[in-house]
Amino acid sequence: MTEMPTLTPDICVIGAGSGGLTVAAGAAQLGASVVLVEEGEMGGDCLNSGCVPSKALLAAAHQAATVSQAKKFGVSFRAPTINRANVAKHIAGVIAGIAPHDSVERFEGLGVTVIRGRGVFAAPDAVIANGQRIQAKRFVIATGSKPVLPPIAGLDGIRPFTNETIFGVTEPIEHLLVIGGGPIGVEMAQAQRRLGAKVTLVEMARLLPKDDPELVGFVRTALAADGVDLKEGTNIIRLERNDDGIAAHLANNEGTTEEIAVSHVLVAVGRRPNTDGIGLERAAVTLKGSTIQVDQRLRTSNPRIYAIGDCAGGPAFTHVAGYHGGIVLRNILFRLRAKVNPDLIPWVTFTEPELAYVGLLETAARARFKDVRTETLDFDTNDRARTERRDAGRIKIVLRAGGQILGVGIVGPQAGELLAPWCLAIARGLKLSAMAGLLLPYPTLSEISKRVAGNYYAPRLFSVGVRALVRGLMKLP
């Protein structure tokens, strides 16, 4: 019997999504030997069925919306014609343009050994993949997650869309039922509505339930203005396929029921870690449900094995997986005791207006500290926002009495971009006075950050005591 070939790298990475690629590229370029195992597409969910295609679709939807919004500027166009096949072609082209950066060829060029196949642990120190045994000094599990299909009667019989299938659609969508009012649900609801579909969004709680309700209100208003039929506090009892399409039977929290007819269904109710069938029990890796348990250094119950990204729980964002990858590299390669700091993690919902956060929401901050303050400012005070007729929005700063910034939420145009200096401020422990003292160009959207910071200090700056001091100083020669 032929003996199975064995590879003995410094690091074996299972999963070639954002986190896994971060570890593989970083470790190889720093001189470690690396084996990367991936059974699916290089680039993982983000490149192939997540961030990249969704933002490409949103860009197409934005172009369609620009036509209808142009009237506010005295400009008129004919109603846009939506070619679904060409939209899908646009999305595929964007993916293809980015794919070489995540390709097998690039990583092999960096010195990484790439094995295409499913990686399964055979022992606490060994993985089998595509007929090869890998005995590495350290392992990094970066297997990501997959969409959850809720236990709704009749769902199996209608073949619903998920984020893995919605972006390749070339057929007309007459009426889309979106199940789930989280980030994916609201982004897709707005995009599909702007691309000509009638859209009904059903959420059992409230829209964007994990976000600040004060800021979510602006997104809710925008979705309704676009024509999305929002049904919050509503459950789907069952789905039935009939000659006319799909009948959705709904019930809200007050007990009122209704039936609506739709043509397609998109499920966006959450994700589940990809941890089944990879031999974690043989690797002595402990699970909590389907999530791999890790400590602050992202080590599993087996000290030779780390887990990062979606499979390790926490926010299921591409940039979080990349951040995790950096933590693991510092731990493995440099023996630093680097730890995850969840208070630094930013996130954005890419609706129009965008909704962006970094740090603690107000409720979490008040649960942790007694001296929490907030400062808000609306975008209709910003001259650039007014010139572009995009002045619906608000910035909200959560801080302690001494000016320590705990969290920032922005809902408005380019909120994700405007969040960048606040990410730096929180990461570096800067106080609000640093933002208040910035010199920024006029007119720009970024001025709203400087102004909201300045407003916090204004009562003290223009107080009776300061005014008296100035009067006294003005008497000096």
Automatic annotation (TrEMBL):
Q: Which superkingdom?
A: Bacteria
Q: Boundaries of each FAD/NAD(P)-binding domain copy?
A: 10-325
Alphabetized Pfam families for the sequence: Pyr_redox_2 (PF07992), Pyr_redox_dim (PF02852)
SUPFAM superfamilies per the UniProt record, alphabetical: FAD/NAD(P)-binding domain, FAD/NAD-linked reductases, dimerisation (C-terminal) domain
Leader sequence range is: none
Q: Does the keyword field hold Signal?
A: no
Q: Which family does it belong to?
A: Belongs to the class-I pyridine nucleotide-disulfide oxidoreductase family.
Give the protein name, as stated in the record.
Answer: FAD-dependent oxidoreductase
Q: Which residues form the Pyridine nucleotide-disulphide oxidoreductase dimerisation domain?
A: 345-450
Q: Which cofactor does it need?
A: FAD
Concerning Gene3D superfamilies, the annotation shows: 3.30.390.30, FAD/NAD(P)-binding domain (3.50.50.60)
Keywords tagged on the record: Disulfide bond, FAD, Flavoprotein, NADP, Oxidoreductase, Redox-active center
